[in-house]
Amino acid sequence: MPQFLRVLQQQRWMDLQHDWLGEDEIPADPVGDLRTTDNKMSVWMLAEESLNLPRIVSALGANRDKLDKLDLALLDSDELSAIGIQTRQSEGDSADEMLNRSFHYDLVEISADKLVNLAKAIIRANRFERVQREDVKRYIACAVKNGWVQEDALRLKSDEIKKVRQFLDTDNAQGGTHD
Questions:
Q1: Where are the chain's structural domains?
Q2: CA-CA distance, 56 to 62, in Å (whole number)?
Q3: Which of 18-32, 52-66, 111-125 is the least confident region?
């Protein structure tokens, strides 16, 4: 069954117990990570055994203005279907064109109720992954080295691009291929 990932801020999803919440309620802060446009939400599909996770991380990291950790939530397609959310393959907007064409999806026709149910499903699933800053940098360097991301397509600030270049110039990027 396909799995999808969404970037979020993990700390928003950790402090969920409040005296003022009613039964089956969640705080509003986590919902802020589930921004929609035209009732759609951008997600990435993981390949079997998550083999493309480092490449997705490199593409997501390359789209930011600074190198930083990435917090991700993972959801199975069955969990999405159970709350009535459909997926539709769409062109992504990352620095990795192959990923954009092959692994980017939108969650579509999302109502406010479905959005809250999605937040609850993420909380129930409790499958969060944090990719540390150094790993994000290493994955970006490997993506540049392997030609998956062109250096001029990096949206990082110039001082951050220098850090990626320095990483490439060391042995840290040796053998750092990923698919």
A1: 3-173
A2: 10
A3: 18-32
